[in-house]
Amino acid sequence: MESPFKGAILKGKVGLLTGGGSGIGYEIAAELGKHGASIVIMGRRKHVLDSAVSALRSLGIDAIGVEGDVRKKEDTVRVVDATIKQFGKLDILVNAAAGNFLVPAEDLSPNGFRTVMDIDAVGTFTMCHVAFPYLKKGGIIINISATLHLTATWYQIHASAAKAAVDSLTRSLALEWGTDYGIRVNGIAPGPIDDTTGASKLITEEVNLKKQQDSALYRMGEKWDIAMAALYLASDAGKYVNGVTLVVDGGIWLSSPRHMSKDEVKQLSKTVEKRSRDAPVGVPKSNL
Ligand code: HXC
After folding, report:
1. How far is 113 from 100, CA to CA, in rounded Å?
2. Which residues contact 172 (CB under 8 A, 6 or more apart)?
């Protein structure tokens, strides 16, 4: 789909994306690039990075890929150094690297829990910390979160805890770095997004959601939806937005079972209203 944003809103900016070789991270990289930013993508798999960089370049985007794991401090330093060496600065850090799998809580080892915390939460903090000296000159951060922990999600205790920590980091950094340095720190919490690793690994409701493509918003989103949210936050359109995690899920996280049809509720409501109108004043409700 065509972007509703002007083409050059990020002209001259440099974006660094962890997990930028595939999925939501790649889509954000491509849209930031199409809107004028130079791009560095970081990821663990060289072949994935190589083909992502080729795809970005074929769109006319100035892009490089740097192998690395956000769990290794030395890798994060190397990626930020490579960014500065290649492009001379860093304006936009997008923390999109994440790990997840479905597992009942009682079957998850502490190391499995720690692994996801390390990638999502500690990895996000490490990247922010290492990039900070460069972001201080007017940068912004976008942390990719999730909606898992807004209520509770079956079989994802580790990722729910990790994304809750990410949201907390977003707010704390927004407070400290926004106040002291003007760095805006925001998050995006995608709902179920089609054609991503998350969708294929985790969404047991996928079939259901796909069947409902014709219902107003209760359906899978597209990577494009998340990239547009990132453009909003990264550009001047979001210049007064700080410390927010924007939920982009069509409102699915709010969904709950409908206990009564609209017709039933209208009927019941009329009856209840009539009963309370006709009741003598002062009669306890329990006697009506
Ligand atoms: C139970 C598991 C497990 C599983 C791994 N572990 N997979 N436990 N069920 N399916 C445990 C292992 O047993 C081990 O603990 C520990 O986790 C580390 O496992 P490793 O395989 O050594 O880790 P590693 O090779 O570093 O791989 C990390 C990973 C992997 C997170 C486990 O899945 C990965 O690399 N994922 C990246 C891609 C990804 O998942 N993307 C999805 C993001 S979706 P022990 O105790 O045995 O040593 C997302 C969006 C959420 O985040 C919202 C969607 C709606």
Report:
1. 10
2. none
Helices (H) and strands (E) in the chain, counts: 10, 7
Instruction: Enumerate residue ranges in the chain where pLDDT < 50.
Output: 207
Question: Taking the model in full, what pTM does it have?
Answer: 0.93
Q: Which atom of ligand 1 is nearest to the CA of 201?
A: 42
What ligand 1 atom has the least distance to the C-alpha of 191?
A: 55
Tell me the angle at which helices 123-135 and 157-181 cross, rounded to the nearest 10 degrees: 20
Q: Is there a contact between 40 and 100 (Cβ–Cβ < 8 Å)?
A: no
* 25-57: pLDDT as tens digits: 999 999 999 999 999 999 999 999 999 999 999
What pLDDT score does 256 carry? 81
On the 0-12 / 13-18 / 19+ scale of CB atoms within 10 A, 245 is buried
Which residues form ligand 1's pocket by a CB distance below 6 Å? 98-101, 103, 108-109, 111-112, 115-116, 146, 148, 159, 192, 197-198, 201-203
